[in-house]
């Protein structure tokens, strides 16, 4: 929907259908105008006149910010109200009471306390529990009946351990499953045997010396070095390698800048402060 603003007359689009102004500024002007219409005596609005309260402490009239405000806002009234609240609920002075369980008189600082000690409080807790159980018998009986029905229904069902045992027995007798299992185990065993044989070969001194000689001769060979250089040049030209190099260089530069800035700040802090006149 679209309409003209009530204040400036500009054409604007209404998002809520009840909107009357095009902006927040026009809205504030409209609210001021409506307030002036409903002005009553003592410079109060109609809404404020209905909500006028009396302070609990000094009986002074005031306009509350919320429905929970009880004092006029003066510091003296606030302090006095706080003191009375503490006296009522958290007073340090002792209170004389009688125990609910044993009818024994006792002195406390807590106004909520009902029992004289731990034994009586335990007894009271037990009585409350019994009362709750007696009041909620129907719900408890319903739950127990549901549990009995479930147990009778699944009486012949196997437990988890028995189910696994049965499943293993079926698998042992199944020839296809045995073939799969054996094939997997044979593959694993072959791999393990190959690794063990390679270790044994390497550990032999003859094979070790032969390997070292081959490495020495390879490093002396000029053709091998040429091949290595060609490979490294080709690898550098790849776009993936270039991107990696660029990222590493940027990281190094950023780290260097951070260290330099830290060094400068440390030097500035260590130097003595001189007052320039």
Structure report:
With 277 residues, the chain is mostly helical. Helix content is 64%, strand content 6%. The strands form three sheets. The protein has a two-stranded antiparallel sheet. It has a two-stranded antiparallel sheet with strand order 3-4. It starts with a strand and ends in a 7-residue tail after the last helix.
Map the helices and strands:
Elements: E1 2-4, E2 11-13, H1 24-37, H2 46-50, E3 53-54, E4 61-62, H3 75-89, E5 95-98, E6 105-108, H4 118-135, H5 137-153, H6 160-173, H7 175-203, H8 205-220, H9 222-237, H10 239-270
Antiparallel strand pairs: 1-2, 3-4, 5-6
List keywords for this structure.
mainly alpha, two-stranded antiparallel sheet, 6 strands, 64% helix
Largest sheet: 2 strands, antiparallel
**% residues in beta strands:** 5-15%
Summarize the helix and strand pattern as letters: EEHHEEHEEHHHHHHH
> Measured on Cα atoms, how large is the radius of gyration?
45 Å
Number of H- or I-type helical stretches: 10
Q: Tell me the total number of β-strands.
A: 6
Spatial separation of the terminal alpha carbons:
69 Å
Q: Look at the structure and give the mean pLDDT.
A: 79
Helix share bin: 55-70%
Structural class estimated from helices and strands: mainly alpha
Q: Going across the biggest sheet, name each strand in turn.
A: 1-2
List unreliable stretches of 5+ residues: none
**Based on CA inertia axes, which overall geometry fits?**
extended
């Amino acid at each position: 929907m679209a309409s003209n603003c009530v204040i400036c007359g500009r054409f604007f689009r209404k998002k809520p259908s009840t909107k009357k102004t095009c902006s927040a500024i026009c809205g504030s002007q409209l609210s001021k105008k409506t307030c002036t219409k409903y002005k009553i005596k003592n410079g109060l609005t109609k809404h404020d006149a209905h909500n006028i309260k009396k302070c609990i402490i000094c009986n002074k009239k005031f306009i509350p910010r919320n429905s929970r405000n009880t004092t006029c806002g003066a510091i003296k009234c606030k302090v006095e109200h706080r003191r009375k609240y503490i006296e009522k609920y958290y007073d340090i002075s002792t209170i004389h009471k009688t125990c609910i369980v044993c009818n024994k008189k006792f002195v406390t600082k807590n106004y909520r306390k009902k029992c004289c000690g731990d034994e009586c409080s335990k007894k009271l807790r037990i009585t409350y529990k019994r009362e709750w159980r007696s009041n909620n018998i129907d719900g408890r009986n319903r739950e127990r009946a549901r549990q009995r029905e479930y147990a009778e229904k699944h009486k012949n069902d196997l437990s988890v351990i028995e189910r696994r045992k049965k499943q293993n027995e079926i698998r042992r007798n199944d020839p296809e499953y045995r073939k799969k299992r054996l094939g997997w185990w044979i593959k694993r065993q072959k791999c393990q045997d190959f690794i063990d044989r390679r270790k044994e070969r390497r550990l032999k001194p003859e094979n070790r010396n032969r390997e070292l000689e081959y490495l020495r001769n390879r490093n002396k060979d000029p053709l091998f070095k040429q091949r290595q250089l060609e490979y490294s040049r080709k690898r550098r030209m790849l776009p993936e390698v270039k991107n990696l190099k660029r990222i590493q260089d940027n990281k190094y530069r950023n780290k260097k800048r951070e260290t330099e800035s830290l060094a400068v700040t440390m030097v500035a802090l260590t130097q003595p402060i001189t007052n320039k006149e």
